[in-house]
């Protein structure tokens, strides 16, 4: 028996090891890809295979002479009447805070508020490719920020299009590109299909907190859109801007802050750039990238969260995120 | 531990810790801020806090922005979503489990902070009363 053991034990051990490996490998294969796409209309969409492509460039909009500014929008450009603004303000109200003391400063403003107002009509591209996103979840109204990535697709945070963790998709999603206070210089468009991924919709994992809105219009042809890219190298030190529609400023006004990426993680970036509730989904971008992969205003992160350990953060555009953004761009 | 057993264990650990993300790339930068990333993997729940914003006379106030801050460690990331009270003064703040401090603002009015604990099984409601005072006049 001793002899048999001496002969067969190594073999048996190898079999055990193999079985163990197969078991673990099987578990690994069976696990769900957290970047798998989920859509509000149930349509099946595969992630795009980008291969060696690391980015797509921005494009300024165009407007032929004599064509109204809002020609591509679902709803026309408008300046809301006082009664319309009052009605909208009931759900998405103007906020004029009185920061009388440091105690009153919002939690995602770090020290002195360094944000500056953007006037999208006057600023042109890419400010007008950033827009206010309003929607409902569970009967309550919320606001976020989104940014165009082609004529009819808006990138944003996952929690702006879906409740996460097994919840439901948002409803009544409306995008106002370049919204400027009471004015919607490029009109508004309704979201017809919402996208996010399993990692957010099912798992509620903040590292997979990104999504997109397919619009009922092609307003991006007028406003232009952002480029975006991914890279394996660290983003630390990259100068970026974070734009959006913060709830602590007059309703519908666009604000921006600048700084450097301070922490570059596997799926997140962190920065000490001031934000506030309502800026979720906004682009974290280089204003005029000249480097590889992307030219012009190029986003590398989708802003999503307020302070943790002194920094605000967003979902980093890694290859899988990039592939999904491309798939959503290409979706019908 | 014998070398072969150690090898098996190492392979098994490697396999179980392997990320399913299709883009998993060993060249990706490792988190420089490990502490900040350490709380990130736990899933959020559709838990949160319901509340009502009112004036000093008790009437509902619509259109107030509701700010949430972490009030006790471990602090979890708070979505940078715009949360406002509706026409009935009611709001819902979707948050993960934890302890938070809530404040309402509208125009020049501010509420005193109210601390509440978010738990999935709880359905607590808080009340935020707007007044012209600053937070320095609030009870500790």
How would you describe the overall organization of this protein?
The complex is a heterodimer of chains A (332) and B (140). In chain A, strands 6-7-8-12-11-9 form a six-stranded antiparallel beta barrel. A six-stranded antiparallel β-barrel of chain A has the order 15-16-17-20-19-18. In chain A, 20% of the residues lie in helices and 33% in strands. By secondary structure, chain A is α+β, with helices and mostly antiparallel strands. The longest helix of chain A has 29 residues, at 2-30. Chain A has seven helices and 20 strands. Chain A folds into two domains: 1-31; 37-330, Trypsin-like serine proteases (Thrombin, subunit H), CATH 2.40.10. Chain B is of the alpha+beta class and 140 residues long. Chain B has a domain at 48-134: Immunoglobulin-like (Sandwich), CATH 2.60.40.1120. Helices cover 14% and strands 31% of the residues of chain B. Chain B contains two helices and eight strands; from the N terminus they run H-H-E-E-E-E-E-E-E-E. In chain B, strands 1, 2, 4, 5, 6, 7 and 8 form a seven-stranded mixed beta sheet that branches. Chain B starts with a helix and ends in a 9-residue tail after the last strand. Classes of the chains: A alpha+beta (332), B alpha+beta (140).
In short:
By secondary structure, chain A is an alpha+beta fold. Chain A has 7 helices and 20 strands. In chain A, the strands form 4 sheets. In chain A, strands 6-7-8-12-11-9 form a 6-stranded antiparallel barrel.
Per DSSP E runs of 2 or more residues, the count of β-strands of chain A stands at 20
* Rounded mean pLDDT score of chain A: 81
Per the CATH scheme, the topology name of the domain at 48-134 in chain B is Immunoglobulin-like
- As a whole number of angstroms, the C-alpha radius of gyration of chain A is 23 Å
Secondary structure class of chain B reads alpha+beta
Structural class of chain A: alpha+beta
CATH architecture of the largest domain in chain A: Beta Barrel
Assign the CATH superfamily of the domain at 48-134 in chain B: Carboxypeptidase-like, regulatory domain
Fourth-level CATH superfamily of the largest domain in chain A: Trypsin-like serine proteases
Assign the CATH class of the largest domain in chain A.
Answer: Mainly Beta
Name of the CATH architecture of the domain at 48-134 in chain B: Sandwich
Distance between the termini of chain A: 69 Å
């Amino acid at each position: 028996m001793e002899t048999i053991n001496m002969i067969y034990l190594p073999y048996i051990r190898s079999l055990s090891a193999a079985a163990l490996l197969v078991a673990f490998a099987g578990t690994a294969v069976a696990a769900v890809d957290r970047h798998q796409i989920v859509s509000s209309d149930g349509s099946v969409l595969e992630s795009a295979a980008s291969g060696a492509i690391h980015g797509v460039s921005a494009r300024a909009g165009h407007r032929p002479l004599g064509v109204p500014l809002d020609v591509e929008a679902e709803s026309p450009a408008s300046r809301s009447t006082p009664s319309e603004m009052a009605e909208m303000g009931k759900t998405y109200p103007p906020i004029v805070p009185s920061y009388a003391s440091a105690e009153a400063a919002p939690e995602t403003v770090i020290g002195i508020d360094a944000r500056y107002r953007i006037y999208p009509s006057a600023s042109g591209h890419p400010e007008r490719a950033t827009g206010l996103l309003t929607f409902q979840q569970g009967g309550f109204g919320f606001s976020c920020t989104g940014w165009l990535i082609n004529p009819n697709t808006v990138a944003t945070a996952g929690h702006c299009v879906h409740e996460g963790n097994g919840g439901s998709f948002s409803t009544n999603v409306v995008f106002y590109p370049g919204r400027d206070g009471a004015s919607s210089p490029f009109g508004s468009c309704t979201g017809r299909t919402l996208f996010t991924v399993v990692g957010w919709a099912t798992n509620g994992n903040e590292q997979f907190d990104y999504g997109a809105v397919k619009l009922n219009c092609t307003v991006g042809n007028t406003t232009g859109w952002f480029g975006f890219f991914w890279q394996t190298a660290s983003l630390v030190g990259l100068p970026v801007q974070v734009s959006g529609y913060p709830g602590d400023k007059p309703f519908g006004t666009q604000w921006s802050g600048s700084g450097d990426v301070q922490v570059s993680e596997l799926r997140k970036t962190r920065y000490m750039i001031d934000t506030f509730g309502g800026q979720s989904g906004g682009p974290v971008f280089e204003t005029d990238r000249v480097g590889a992969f992307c030219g012009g205003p190029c986003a590398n992160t989708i802003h999503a969260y307020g302070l943790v350990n002194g920094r605000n953060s967003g979902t980093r555009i890694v290859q899988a995120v990039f592939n999904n953004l491309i798939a959503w761009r290409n979706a019908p | 531990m014998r070398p072969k057993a150690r090898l098996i264990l190492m392979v098994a650990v490697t396999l179980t810790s392997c990320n399913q993300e299709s883009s998993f790339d060993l060249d990706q930068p490792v988190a420089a801020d490990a502490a900040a990333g350490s709380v990130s993997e736990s899933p959020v729940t559709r838990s949160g806090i319901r509340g009502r914003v009112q004036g000093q006379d008790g009437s509902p106030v619509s259109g107030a922005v509701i700010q949430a801050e972490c009030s006790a460690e471990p602090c979890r990331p708070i979505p940078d979503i715009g949360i406002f009270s509706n026409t009935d003064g009611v709001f819902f703040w979707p948050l993960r489990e934890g302890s938070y401090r809530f404040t309402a603002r509208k125009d020049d009015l501010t509420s005193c902070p109210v601390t509440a604990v978010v738990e999935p099984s709880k359905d607590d409601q808080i009340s935020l009363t707007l007044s012209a005072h600053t937070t320095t006049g609030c009870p500790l």
